[in-house]
Write the structure tokens for this entry.
Amino acid sequence: MRDGPKTAELLGWYDRHARELPWRVSPSDRASGVVPDPYAVWLSEIMLQQTTVAAVRDYFTRFMSIWPTVQDLAGAEDDRVMGEWAGLGYYARARNLLKCAREVTALGGFPTTRDGLQALPGIGPYTSAAISAIAYDLPETVVDGNVERVMSRVFHVKTPLPDAKGELTQLAETLTPQNRAGDYAQAVMDLGATICTPKSPACGICPWNRECSARTAGVQAELPKKKPKAKKPTRFGVAYLARNEAGEWLMERRPEKGLLGGMLGWPGAEWGDAVVEHPPFEADWQDPGVEVRHVFTHFNLQLSLRVVQTNGPIQPKQGLFLDIKRTDLPTVMRKAFDVAVSHLSH
């Protein structure tokens, strides 16, 4: 085991400089006996997966105002929750959010052990550790991207990510305290987010600068090392946007499993290596001359659009005409909706 920095130094820094976040109990409030709400901790952690704090703030505040308890969320309509989630991406998280809320409600509340938490839908090793530490002050080690960066620099780990994940987690475990584990977990994440940043770390004001092996070697800005990313492929598709005389739009429900699972979308062929025309019914489909581009985790999408205003009865080969709002749709479908509305209004 390598020697590491002192927990007390980091906690003292956190007591003075903790970020104010809508889901967080401040260190001073926690010291005075305020207990974190496991619902708020869980909701924030699910939202923060692969998403930034800046992007999550407004979503979290809105969710808490609409559904202030886990029981309220459990009783929500699926489409309403998915619509409010739109823009955060990774929609499987939203589906698991509902499943988890309903299971927690059936249990009578959140489990108070890491194993119990990890048995819930959508809660993996990281999230169970985060809730255990932050909500219940259990001495669990919480390792996100910020913590990986801090550990790689403090201990001068040269192994590139993602290969270094196991080693970095083990090193982080050597520093996790028995007391104030929740404050400590948030302190390390704050350190990575505000001081030990990816570029130009502010080493001069870091509470661990004297113990940082990478700083001693003068290579802190070069860590953590990462393997080169593979180039994202581009997929192509065509979306068919049809509006009838009643103002309803032709929609289809995407399969529960897979990308944008369970959400409303525009009819069309599967996205692939080339554009495939697959209209849901014969009509004078118009090309608005605007292509929708969207970035997903594993690929870039170029979506051609076909738009039509229908008159008279239509029997589509796929989809149903529904009275929908823009907020019912995921972000990529909203982009297409905006183009179609603009085109049909001219």
